[in-house]
């Protein structure tokens, strides 16, 4: 069992098997991409292998723990004898470990990558290899059920992406509860469904947050013009790779999330349900199919139905295609005969409400968004034409004739007389005009002071007007103690308060460190950076840093959010503690002063 045996095994692997390993271990394809079996073996043997074992069954964990304990004597026969399973069941279990890139055969001996080997050596107790639990076939959903789920997902995506109203986000990222409630009421969507659609659109690269608002990306137009099969494939593929479960999270949607536990549960559950097996039956046996992530299964099943991957009590045709496809393009080709375009037909009723049947096209969305208000009635989305909405369309450059022509193209029925009459209205409300010689722009509280002076009038909370010329106005404002900047190109004057010199603190003497003194111990460094930790906590953390062993911390990040996580310290990186974060599955920097408590890792 030499160090190069893993590389030699990878070099001999079948292309199909190797492709499957690379698919379930996406982290190994991150740049710099391994350029050969040796580099691939190194990448597969890093700490990412600990996350890969979440994809395997209880029997695979049992066989792996037995192999770790047996060491160089870990043959199939020995593992079977130790776990009480048949040789066939043990071979199947070890095959799962090979398919996720954490085990390989060296002759007759089963080898494990170092992180997994070390973790399973520390496991207490022995698990038995029991064989796969029996799961009955599930009720396959009808074509109508599957089509309804797919169309509902696309309609929700259209509604969020086609609108001109901004989606307001939180400063820390994501969409808050009140904003989701507003959109849910406007679109007739439950909070779980809205969470799912928002996160999927964000993951698919169709939504992006800029400041406190979400907007569509450059990819939106290409996606919107694509076929429904291509549109659904991109959304389903984004959901399949989401590291989290949107409906299982209580925090804001569209946040960039931490751990891949939910994704592991999603992959394990869906693969276990292939061949028409009952999804409910697989979920009930999740303790066997995905023992380390079984608690996330409920969210997986709920979202799979929403996306259209599950119909009835079994994987749909689209779900089976999702598991077989290598990318979104291949998935779109596989479902092209199932997810077919539906003709868009608009019907305008006598009460000035419009209803869309079929797939909402770009042109229909553009016309309705510009000239009507979106409403939800009895769970269905309708558009209401009003005097205000039509005037808003006129303000955007539409005319009554152009709107009527567009509506006639979208409907097979005559546009009602009431709407024709409304489109003939040209009134746009009253407008007042006031002549000024110069404008003053400043903060609202400064404008409030300016308008108290003679010759000024408030035009807006942050704008004041005056009949004076700009030079005369600047001189008067400067005489009143305002800092003034003239903008000749716009005819405006920008006003700020006169700057006040900030007080300067007297310098205090600082004791310089003794460069000849002995270097402080790790415990002294920890104590110096966090004096709130108890002596026991300092000793635990210092010991973990010195030994590079696992330790559990309660940590508060820069946003003030608390979390409990297991870390493996690597060393100091300037003022930061560099460690492998088991929750994030990556190296992370931690500020010691933000650690609230420290405890040993429980097996």
TrEMBL record:
Residues 348-453 form the Helicase XPB/Ssl2 N-terminal domain. It comes from the Bacteria. The keyword Manganese does not apply. InterPro entries: WYL_dom, XPB/Ssl2_N. GO terms for molecular function: helicase activity. Keywords: ATP-binding, Helicase, Hydrolase, Nucleotide-binding. Residues 538-599 form the WYL domain. The keyword Nucleotide-binding applies. PROSITE patterns: WYL. This is XPB/Ssl2-like helicase family protein. It comes from Actinocrispum wychmicini.
